[in-house]
């Protein structure tokens, strides 16, 4: 009860830390996603094959996803005050390289794209940093708000090509590099660690090994691979799907993709907020049920207005809320000194979970001339994940709460 009475009295500083971290996440994700909107342009200019174009777009995604594992461990050790400016400053280098020198060949683009992946690791810095500033009953909301920074990918998608058309091929890279420099300076001046933070003893690598032995790490990784992985997959592949399945023009398909991304971004903090109030497991079970039904409906390729549109908006809302609920679960169940390491591994699972489905959907369409099988597979995976959440994850949550209740008595 005392803890509940203190919650409304959260001061201004935690909100300042949360806002600053969220802006940094968005700017770094903006940089991380710079190559994706330019894939078709590079394919034409450099005469890339479809595989080479896919590889170019995939390299930053894979590096940024896998890189979250060590960055999360380093955040546990050194804190977000050090790691946010460090990651932002490090991302400036590949952004400038790509903007000024790195667009002349596939090899130079791949080199730049590899190091551009550093920007994608910012997620593993922000979750432990922001959750430490809030009491347990507010952490779902806090990590959900921070997760809205994933909207930086939408900013990149909507502005990159227009900047190049208006100001030249270096423009979006120079703008983003400038924002990263400004943010790194602001973060160094503004960010502070939460009171009472105690860095874990031992090396970060030993901490990573200990994290890998936690069952909650792999449970949350499975949930995030489906929820956030599904969001990433659709945000990348939806324009192609709409163009192929419904014959939409590229601009119309891109606008609809932006709407999908926006709804998912808005629903992420709502998923975290609901998790604080009714429990993350309940939210996750409902969201995976919605994904199951919406994917099954869309497998029949219904008319886009209104059934298809409702199905895709339902997918966006459920995947966004599920992503927020997953990290509400992490923030509530994981010991404070290991949140960064767990976030790194779970975040890597989410990023990699979004890498496979577009390749699978493309292969299925190439073999069958239809996306139906891919959407049926999504429905099956979502249903299985919902059952897993309601059983295995629910038991883990109950086991965690039992000692807490015993201690309270």
From the spread of the alpha carbons, the general shape counts as globular
Poorly predicted regions are 1-8
Radius of gyration: 21 Å
Structural class: mainly alpha
Number of strands: 0
Amino- and carboxy-terminal Cα gap: 13 Å
Helix percent band: over 70%
Mean pLDDT: 87
Structure commentary:
The protein has 409 residues and is mostly helical. The chain has 19 helices and no strands. It has helices spanning 2-6, 12-32, 39-46, 50-66, 68-78, 80-100, 106-116, 122-132, 139-147, 152-167, 171-190, 204-212, 215-246, 250-278, 280-298, 304-333, 339-353, 356-368, 372-408. The radius of gyration is 21 Å and the shape is globular.
Explain briefly what this protein structure is.
The protein is built from 19 helices and no strands. The chain is mainly alpha-helical.
């Amino acid at each position: 009860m005392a803890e509940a009475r203190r919650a409304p009295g959260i001061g201004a500083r935690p909100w300042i830390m949360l806002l600053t971290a969220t802006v940094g996440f968005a700017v770094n994700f903006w940089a991380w996603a710079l190559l994706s909107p330019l894939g078709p342009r590079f394919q034409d200019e450099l005469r890339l094959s479809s595989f080479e174009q896919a590889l170019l777009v995939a390299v930053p995604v894979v590096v940024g996803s896998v890189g979250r594992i060590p960055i999360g461990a380093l955040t546990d050790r050194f804190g977000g005050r050090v790691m946010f400016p460090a990651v932002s400053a490090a991302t400036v280098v590949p952004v400038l390289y790509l903007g000024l020198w790195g667009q002349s060949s596939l090899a130079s683009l791949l080199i730049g794209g590899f190091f551009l992946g550093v920007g994608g690791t910012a997620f593993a810095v922000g979750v432990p940093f922001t959750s430490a500033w809030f009491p347990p009953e507010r952490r779902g909301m806090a990590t959900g708000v921070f997760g809205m920074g994933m909207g930086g990918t939408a900013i990149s998608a909507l502005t990159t090509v227009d900047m190049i058309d208006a100001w030249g091929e270096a423009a979006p890279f120079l703008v983003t590099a400038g924002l990263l420099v400004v943010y790194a300076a602001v973060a160094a001046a503004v960010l502070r660690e939460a009171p009472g933070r105690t860095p874990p003893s031992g090396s970060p690598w030993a901490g990573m090994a200990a994290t890998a032995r936690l069952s909650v790490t792999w449970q949350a990784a499975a949930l995030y691979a489906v929820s956030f992985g599904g969001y990433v997959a659709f945000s990348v592949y939806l324009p192609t799907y709409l163009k192929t399945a419904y014959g939409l023009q590229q601009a119309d398909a891109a606008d609809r993709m932006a709407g999908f991304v926006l709804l998912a971004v808005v629903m992420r903090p709502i998923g975290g907020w609901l998790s604080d109030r009714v429990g993350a497991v309940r939210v996750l079970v409902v969201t995976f049920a919605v994904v199951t039904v919406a994917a099954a409906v869309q497998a029949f390729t219904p008319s886009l207005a209104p059934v298809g549109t409702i199905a895709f908006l339902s997918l966006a809302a459920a995947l966004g809320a599920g992503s927020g609920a997953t990290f509400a679960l992490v923030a509530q169940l994981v010991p404070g000194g290991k949140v960064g390491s767990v976030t790194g591994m779970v975040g890597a699972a989410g990023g990699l979970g979004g890498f496979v489905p577009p390749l699978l959907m493309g292969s299925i369409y190439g073999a069958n001339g239809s996306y139906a099988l891919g959407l049926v597979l999504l429905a099956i995976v979502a249903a299985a994940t919902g059952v897993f959440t309601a059983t295995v994850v629910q038991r883990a949550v109950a086991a965690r709460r039992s000692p807490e209740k015993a201690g309270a008595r």
